[in-house]
Every structure is written in structure tokens, then in C-alpha cells.
Amino acid sequence: MPSSTPSSARPRPEPGALTVAELARAARRALPRAAWDYFRAGADGEVTLAANRRAFARWPLYPRVLVDVARCDPGLELLGARLAFPILIAPMAYQKLAHPDGELATARAAAGLGTVMVVSTLATVALEEVAAAAPGPRWFQLYVHRDRGLTRELVARARAAGYGALVLTVDAPVLGRRLADVRNGFALPPGLAMANLAGSGTEGDHFGDAARHDPSLNWRDLDWLRGIAGVPLLVKGIVRADDAARAVAAGVAGVIVSNHGGRQLDGTVAALDALPGVVAAVGGSVPVLVDGGVRWGTDVLKALALGAAAVLVGRPVLWGLAVDGEAGVARVLTLLRDELVRAMALAGCPELAAVTRDLVGG
Ligand code: FNR
Ligand code: LAC
After folding, report:
1. What is the atom index within ligand 1 of the atom nearest the CA of 171?
2. Which of 9, 26, 45, 336 lies at a C-alpha separation of 20 to 30 Å from 318?
3. For residue 3, what pLDDT is reported?
């Protein structure tokens, strides 16, 4: 548009959410109470849920000046996939609770913008259908069942459907207690099911009630799983340096620092605060990712400065999905991507390699 255009003829800025927080408010209006509560909640006193956010505020940025930032490229290579920006979609259960298109909408938005969606074991659309919905790179998140045959089958199905990596979630031997869910008697509404588990007899149960989930999962199982994975295996839910080192020694391809968005052990260290210790323990041998509380582009910048290769976002994606399906998820990702690119420019970082430890203090 030429700059001489009279202001009255200029397109008006598109109305709608300008921040993740605004999208959250819109989602709250759009969602039934029980779904909003399930998505929002942290465990018990929600100390960790709050800590995840607070941690970002404690790390101030020290922007670099007089750097040519005429072009800022947030692209990266991650486990063999080319991503347009370092923000992946965290695995989240039950996405049809947010929107009738559920995981299909999320997969399309991720592929359209060039990032990875991690599809949950507890998806409400079968992993093959999610794969067929969009061409983008995607990973599969695994909850291990008592029936190891069922897990072996899920792994084989994910590989056959072209999932590029497996993400083993290790912070949920049992489900954390979310008070609102207890009070609401939260359950999957009629018509929704854990589509990947169809035929197992428990596909309609909520995760927390299901007897099929295996709390005995341990390091020996990690070896077993790595043996059958056939694709890179990441572990998600690590906050300790010694656990990270042990996982790397066991041959994992990546570590995701996470406390499950504050939904599991309340009082757990904030994800961002756990990151530097894990990064030091891993020593660059495999990529370290982090999730929990990422709501701004500057949060992404801080996590990368502290050594993360990329971040994952959870709830914001569900809020976008609830508000406007695929377009809503695309909106969240675009918001965060554009905020990150602006933050890179303002911090003197034309590419991600320039996002170094000295950019944050504290
Ligand atoms: C999750 N999370 C999760 N993690 C996982 O490994 N498998 C799963 O099925 C789910 N399900 C799930 C449902 C909902 C509603 C939420 C909010 C979260 C945890 C998720 O992957 C991630 O770790 C956190 O959500 C990240 O924190 P933020 O971005 O939500 O603050
Ligand atoms: C949750 C489980 C399902 O956090 O991962 O609700």
C-alpha cells in the first residue's frame, strides 16, 4: 500500500486478540466451564503453575545494540526437520473438547506455519487421521500402558504414519490432582473418546481413572522403548540434571524440561529455572527443549538464551483452537512467532545463533 493513501482508505487493523492473554479471555467465554477448567488447571495449590510464569519475569534481558537486524530469521533445524521458528506445539489430550475439529485443526495450523505438532496418546482423533490431515513434520507423545503390547502397537502405528520422533512423558506415573476437575466430576463427554486406544476397552475413561496406565515405568523401560522406537526418542518431564544426564547416557535424542504445565507435582521448580542445570548436564550432546508458561515472544527468547533449542507451548494453543479452530491455532502461533522476531530485532539477534547466554541476567 503506497504511503500516500489517505488514512480513511487504509485497511483497519484486524480486530481480535493482540496477545495470548487476550485469546485466553476469549476462550474462557467460548468454552463450557468443565473444559475451561480442565485446560487451565494446575495441580493442588497451583504453586508450580504460577511459578512457571513468574520465572520468566525474573530473568531480565540485556539487549545488544547497533547490530544489523534488517533481516531476522527465526528458522532452525531440529532432529532432522526444518522448522520456521523454534516454537512447537506441546502434546495435549482431548482437543475435541476445545473445538469439533480437534487435533486435525491443530495439525493443519502447525503444518501451515512450518512447525511441529506433538500429538498426544490421548488425542480425540486417531494418529493416522491426524497424519493424513496435513503434511508437516510431527512427533508422537507416548503414555506407556501396563499392556506393553498396546504400547508396542502404538509405536509401530506412529512410525508407519510417518511421525518423526517419539516423546516419552515421564512426569506422570500417576495423574496430578486438579481440584476443579474433582469438583466438576470431569469426564470425557459422550461422543468423545481416546481415539488411539479404540478397542482397548478404556478409550472412554478419563486418563486419571484408567487402570491401563503404568505407574511402574522406569529406566529399564526407557531402554526397551529406545530399542523398539525406530525414530529418535525424546523424554519429556525432566527437571533434574542427574535425570537428564542419565537419559542422555541411555541414548535419548532430546530432553524436554517440563513440569507438565504445573499439572503434576505441585511445588516442582519452574520449568525455566530448571533449564540451565539440565543444559549444563547435557552439555550440547542432544537438544534440550522446554515448556511451561511460554506466553510471549520474549519468553521464547529468554528460554533460548538459557540454552533451549526450542520451546513448546501448551494452553495457548487450546485457547486459539477454542476461539477459532485451525485459524485460531494459526493466530496463536503467528502472534508468538511475530513477537519473537520483533524481540530478536530489538535484542540485536538476526538469527537464533546470536541468542546467547549473555542476553539474560539474573
Ligand atoms: C497437557 N500436557 C500433556 N502432556 C503430555 O505429555 N501428554 C498429554 O496428553 C498432555 N495433556 C495435556 C492436556 C492439557 C489440557 C494441558 C494444559 C497440558 C502437558 C503439556 O504437554 C505441556 O507440558 C504444558 O501444557 C506446557 O505448559 P503451558 O504452555 O500450558 O503453560
Ligand atoms: C493432563 C494429562 C492427560 O495433563 O496429560 O491432563
Report:
1. 6
2. 45
3. 44
Ligand lying closest to the C-alpha of residue 167: 1
Report CA(362)–ligand 1 centroid distance (Å): 28
Residue 199, pLDDT score: 78
High-pLDDT (> 70) share of the chain, %: 93
Q: Distance from CA of residue 22 to its chain's centroid?
A: 19
Atom of ligand 2 nearest to the CA of 93: 3
* DSSP letter, residue 234: E
pLDDT confidence band for 160 (50 / 70 / 90): very high
Ligand 2 pocket residue status of 93, Cβ below 6 Å? yes
Question: Where does the pLDDT of residue 1 fall: very low under 50, low under 70, confident under 90, or very high at 90 and above?
Answer: very low
Q: What is the CB neighbour count within 10 angstroms for residue 308?
A: 27
Element (H, E) at 75: none
CA distance linking residue 177 with residue 173, whole number of Å: 13
Bridge partners (DSSP) listed for residue 235? 168, 255
Cβ of residue 175 lying under 6 Å from some atom of ligand 1 = no
Q: Is residue 277 predicted with pLDDT exceeding 80?
A: yes
- Contact criterion met (CB below 8 Å) for 52 and 262: yes
**Amino acid identity, residue 37?**
D
How far is it, in rounded angstroms, from Cα 78 to Cα 287?
8
Q: What number is the average pLDDT over the span 66-82? A: 97
Residue 257, H or E segment: strand 254-257
Sequential DSSP letters for 286-331 = S-EEEESS--SHHHHHHHHHTT-SEEEE-HHHHHHHHHHHHHHHHH
- Quote the DSSP letter at residue 251: T
Sign of CA dihedral 153, 142, 108, 33: positive
Q: Which ligand is nearest to the CA of 321?
A: 1
What is the rounded CA–CA span in Å between residue 346 and residue 296?
A: 14
The pTM assigned to this predicted structure is 0.95
What H or E segment, with its residue span, contains residue 119? strand 117-119
Pairing outcome for strands 138-142 and 166-169:
parallel
Give the sign of the dihedral formed by CA 174, CA 179, CA 183, CA 185.
negative
